[in-house]
């Protein structure tokens, strides 16, 4: 979801840094946002491909083949799709967990050093709920915990694959995601309001710290991006 919420602000910050290419994969085409990113830094080639993370693995691989054929090298994959709606159990798991696993699995075909690949870097956007659940949305929180765990395993597999990984875990950030959302079995109808009573951060603050984490490029790091700060988390294994 590179064109909404935290994703769009992070895209802005990354483009400002001036990578040669910036490829946006998103379910919804947002020509206005793409045009804005292109205008931000004319040195960066910004391209958009429609992509839904819930498609089968083979379809993701096919899209990546197209992208790799065009760009030859891709250094960093950011997995950022997510939904927060504990009424939609299967969709939450499909987007927040399965989709991320499939996209990661698909890119391994191009990056894995056992296949002669150059390696690569994966930044997975998880959430502080991955290690500190919002218990009223247990499905969402568990899907994020799964991704934190998956990412930590990826980092330990680096000696085998040549691919490094770290997780980006935003705290409560003012995004459309948190305005109103459904708790599991409606255990707490006011969950969004209760959440808003906590200290929050802006998407810009979050995005700026995200770029700092990308620059740090620390394999296995579990970064907490909360109340405008960037802190490493020591997660008990």
Given helix and strand content, the structural type is: alpha/beta
- The CATH level-2 architecture is identified as 3-Layer(aba) Sandwich
User: Within the largest sheet, what's the order of strands?
Assistant: 3-4-5-6-7
- The CATH topology label is Rossmann fold
Structure summary, number of beta strands = 7
Please indicate the count of domains: 1
- Element order, helices and strands? HEHEHEHEHHEHHEE
User: Which term fits the overall shape?
Assistant: globular
Low-confidence stretches: none
Task: Note the main sheet.
Answer: 5 strands, mixed
CATH superfamily: NAD(P)-binding Rossmann-like Domain
Alpha-carbon distance between the termini? 29 Å
Mean pLDDT: 95
Individual helix count: 8
| Percentage of residues in strands | 15-25%
Q: Look at the structure and give the CATH class.
A: Alpha Beta
Radius of gyration: 17 Å
Helicity, as a percent range: 40-55%
Family: Belongs to the short-chain dehydrogenases/reductases (SDR) family.
Pfam family, one: adh_short
GO molecular function: alcohol dehydrogenase (NAD+) activity
Protein name: Alcohol dehydrogenase
